[in-house]
Amino acid sequence: MIKNGGETFSVNSFEKEVLPKRQDPETDKETWNKNLSPTNLVAIHITNTFPTDGVVRSHVGWTEHDGRRLKGVRDTIHFTLNHVVVEEHNGIDSKMRGSWHTRNFVVLAPFDKFKKEQIKNLIRQDTFTLGDFEIPQGSRVLIDWKELSLLRDSHVIDNDQMQSIIDQLGVSDNYISTETNPEKEIIVESNGIEYVIANVSDGEFRPYIEKQIKDMGYKFAYPNFNESFFEKYGFQPGRLHEGHPDGKPENLGVVMDNLVPLVFLDWFLLMGTTEYIDRFGNISEGYKYEDRFFTAKESLQEGLKKDYNFLQNISEDLRAKKYLKDRFFQYLFIIREITEVHLGKMGDGKFKDIFGEFKVWLEDFIKKNSIEIELDAEYCVDYLKSICNGYLKKIIEFEQPKSEDSIFHSPASVLLRYVQQFTKLLKSTHISESDRQVFYNFFVQLKDDLESNMQVGRIPDWHLSTIHKVMDTIDLVCE
């Protein structure tokens, strides 16, 4: 027995069951689905993180493994079954996720070798397991040839084997810094797992995975689970995201992007100020936003209550709970401090009154629930790094927006709003000088990164004006 993610799993639940042989991949779809069994299923997990030690780690798993703090706080690993999620379901065909440059590794694992009790959701487009996922024997891991050195660094191969592979690929050095695009596919086996090294950078991502599914002897198809399947193999149907440790929306729901008064704070708070008049010419225009602003406040309050209650009801056995609480309490601190800074800048009027009501509500909420919060600057900066690095990557790869509205929601604009809000923390009276320095160092480094990318021409022209605003915002607080 092993302990993983707070639950105990048998080493291989399916071993106790007599499973039918795998169907021929050429079987017609109707017959194939009618006779569906775990042996017919292959699970596909696409990631940008190499599974070291043969383990696919969740966000929580990486934190516990090496201390890294990621943007998410999930403790689940997600798979599709026998297919790749298509664009309309935010799959790899979409612009931001359909490139081998952004998703460097693919794990294809026989479903009948899963730890059955670890499976918490079973649907073809989003099957997920709780805790870290140990890749079973008989699996394949697809690796782009430019990531070859990771196999050596993870001790899957040694230096001699790596040099042999480099020679076979016809590339020039151990750093894989050549523009050569080898056509060969090389398979290395280690501990019952096949590592497939190939060039797919310039090819289509989805067809290559489809080829691997077929090469493993599985049918590339969309499984349709019927009642007899769930009954026969002991699964419950209709468990869409039930038991998902970070709830819905993902990452506890207290995500800055979804909290309108934070992401769009400047837009709402300036409605009753002279800056709004300068921008729109008529203060009376601001009143049509009053209901929208009030609704945003009410939504934020309900969201915070819901998320806190959700946290209280999470089982103590789930290792994600600690990290979810840490994230939630840091959000509370940030929201409280930014609210106070903004109130000090607002002119008198209805919008200041509404925002003041929220501040009173928030203080009462914290007091009533006996919540003790204090800033963990290192935690917040780690979180900010993951966000800003992600948006910088999107800025470099993102296609030119087609409209003004698209520009407002572009990666550069979202990055600007994050910087605008978090730099306000530097003006908080509740932050120590040492914590202030942590944020200061982060923003200075962010500006340096943006400048260096601009100097080498990696920032597209249509993002330059927004990126200059980001740097100007940093200059205002770090000068």
Automatic annotation (TrEMBL):
Comp. bias (Basic and acidic residues):
14-32
Region: Disordered, residue numbers: 1-33
Task: Name the domain of life.
Answer: Bacteria
The molecule here is called: Uncharacterized protein
